[in-house]
Amino acid sequence: MNNREIPLIHIHGSHRQMGQQIGEACRDQIHHSIGNANQLLADAFERLQLTWEGAQTQSRKYIPFAEERFPDFIEEMQGVAEGANASFDDIAVVNAMEAVTMDALHLTKCTSMAVAPERSANGHVYLAHNEDWLPEDEPDLVILHATPDDGPPFLAMTYGALLPNIGFNAEGIAQACDSVYPIDSRIGTPRVIVSRATLAARSPDEAIRAALAPQRAAGYNHLIAHDSGELYNVEVSARRFAVLGSEDGAVTHTNNYLSPNMVEIESDPDELIATRVRYFRAKRLLGLTRLHTIESLQAIQRDHINFQDSICNHAIDSQQPFDREKTITALIMDLTERVMYATWGSPCQNEYHAYRL
User: In 3D, which of 303, 322, 24, 33 has the Cα closest to residue 161?
Assistant: First the structure.
């Protein structure tokens, strides 16, 4: 097992200042991630017919909606650009990539799950998430310990130029995001910026309202947990949503919609068979243990059934730019203790390290 530890970056102040601090501390990772995104579009040009300059033009259509609804997080992006000595247009493309490519990426291998106090051996609330993404972005992982001037402190994972959106805050709100693929996408606030807002919530209903921001471009599934044991899957598209509660103190989600209301507008459901298999596998494994521990959740995160579309996923040797996903980090958040356990890389090959808020 590798013992490498994701870098921890402390930031504080206004949103502009926090962005600048991220940019300064992660300058190399940010420029690396912009280069990765540029290369991804180049590799996929035959399919997308989209150049980097075209992606910049497209992203400019989305930013005004975010500026109107979430000006603080546009300030963070501007600060990142300033601190990293990067172009704001490049930062915008990375944060609006799913929108400007019209969801053609179809990266569908993330897995999220959570258990309430009645389903854990020590009465704690746990949220676990496997983040699957392109292997080129794995070196750019960071954990942010943030203390905003105007919101609750939070601990979050991110990589490169992306705004943080997977983590938990001092109010006991946690979020994991899974990409989903609706047919009603439109020009509006990009998903990443909407999900960044959820990290600033102070209560479960505020977190859900943030995920349902008006004039959103599309949506994720937001697995939202609270340290009281309240657990929700909030399935979102541009115009629809569904709020699903926990069953028997547990909840899980992958990259397909579960609500019948949302399944109606799912794009290319026949391409999402593997994520459905992974959903039922994760749900079954959660059910096999009555009282979960950190170790039992880690065991689920390392599962390889249905490889190469398993919960713990590994990059395969493929020339297809959209078929090289791997688990770049596995996270377990203990909301009771305010601790995040994270691997740098696939959990079957890398040790978990603790990060405290």
Answer: 33
Residue 3 in domain: no
Residues 150, 233 within the same domain: yes
**Going by DSSP bridges, is the β-strand pair 8-13/141-148 parallel, antiparallel, or unpaired?**
parallel
Instruction: Round the average pLDDT of the chain to a whole number and report it.
Output: 95
CB-CB neighbours of 21 under 10 Å: 20
The string of pLDDT tens digits covering residues 86-140 is 999 999 999 999 999 876 666 678 999 999 999 999 999 999 999 999 899 999 9
- DSSP secondary structure string, 153-208? -EEEEEETTPPP-EEEETTSEEEEEEE--BS---SSB-HHHHHHHHTT-SSHHHHH
For residues 85 and 125, state if they share a domain: no
Beta strands across the sheet bearing 326-334: 250-253, 111-115, 126-133, 326-334, 339-342, 353-356
Collapsing DSSP states into helix, strand and coil, what is residue 39?
helix
Same domain, 88 and 229: no
Domain limits at 63? 8-100
pLDDT of residue 318: 62
Tell me, what amino acid is at 297? L
* Spatial contact of 109 and 132, defined as CB atoms under 8 Å apart: yes
Q: How far is residue 110's CA from residue 330's CA, in Å, rounded to a whole number?
A: 10
Question: Is 1 domain-assigned?
Answer: no
Among residues 174, 169, 177, 283, the alpha carbon closest in space to that of 224 is found at 174
Domain count, the chain: 2
- Domain presence at residue 36: yes
State the pLDDT at residue 194: 97
